[in-house]
Amino acid sequence: MTDWIKAARLRTLPLSLSGIIMGAFIAKWRLYSEGGIWDWRVLALALLVTLLYQILSNYANDYGDGVKGTDAKRAAEAETRAVASGKITAKQMKNAVILFSILSFVATIVLLYIAFIPNYMNEFYIFNGLGLASILAAIGYTVGKNPYGYMGLGDIFVFIFFGLVSVCGSYFLFTKTFSWDVLLPGAAIGMMSMAVLNLNNMRDIESDKLSGKNSFALRIGFKNAMIYEMILLQFPLILILLFLGVNGFFQSQNYYVFIVMILLLPLMKLRRKIMTVKEPKELDPFLKQVGIMTFVMAILTAFGLNFFS
């Protein structure tokens, strides 16, 4: 059981929850201001679904990199993966991927039933398709003949699914409407998620070169990937600030809603520390730190909107 828990990579779970929390509590703030109803059951199920998606993704990545030999070429600084180390066989991991695919889809159907049935049948079917796409994206990063993670497309998929789909999708589950301004926090979470993936790919850049995994970091080189990382970590708070601005908080004189901006200094400090790294192996601790920072960003934004606005 310990090996399965390690393979689930629990440190990645706060990052996956961030988009759901952001979208759900923006929806709560907007619904309450308009006299609408916010269903806590949708939040609970959405969190469960995204956890299942994340564990599925981690198991699929372990399996895909393991059977392709990518993990075997990784240096000692990279985290030990279950299939490559032999702690879990490839067949067992493949069965786990199948199991979590089924669990994820069943949980998705239950979530969408609660959110949309009986009054929103079209949305129910559309979101079922989106759920299936999310499952395929979770598996397709490293599994298959042409995994998109090996073609340098992982960043795009992470931005779409961890950012826009997670935030805007969860917002829609509650409000049954789309609002363009929610794209701003969606893009913020997406960029933070890309920052985590880029750090991971920078850490593994040498071993990925040997295994033929052409991540975006490998394609542009370590130095340019570092510049890219700084850009990714620079814009999320600006996007959150723009979201608050377009919703009139600059004129409201209610400055407590800007509590999320206290992350400005920690993020500056984090960027400086990352910039001093010379060896890829030294980047590993920052993956968890950026993930936690993303989670805190979502929590503070939700707290500011729902308790101070």
From TrEMBL:
It comes from the Bacteria. Keywords: Cell membrane, Membrane, Menaquinone biosynthesis, Transferase, Transmembrane, Transmembrane helix. The keyword rRNA processing does not apply. GO terms for molecular function: 1,4-dihydroxy-2-naphthoate polyprenyltransferase activity. Pfam families: UbiA. It is an enzyme of class 2 (transferase). Its main location: membrane. InterPro entries: MenA, UbiA_prenyltransferase, UbiA_sf, UBIAD1. It is found in: Cell membrane; Membrane. It is a multi-pass membrane protein. Pathway: Quinol/quinone metabolism; menaquinone biosynthesis; menaquinol from 1,4-dihydroxy-2-naphthoate: step 1/2. GO terms for cellular component: plasma membrane. Its EC number is 2.5.1.74. It catalyses: an all-trans-polyprenyl diphosphate + 1,4-dihydroxy-2-naphthoate + H(+) = a 2-demethylmenaquinol + CO2 + diphosphate. Conversion of 1,4-dihydroxy-2-naphthoate (DHNA) to demethylmenaquinone (DMK). Belongs to the MenA family. Type 1 subfamily. This is 1,4-dihydroxy-2-naphthoate octaprenyltransferase.
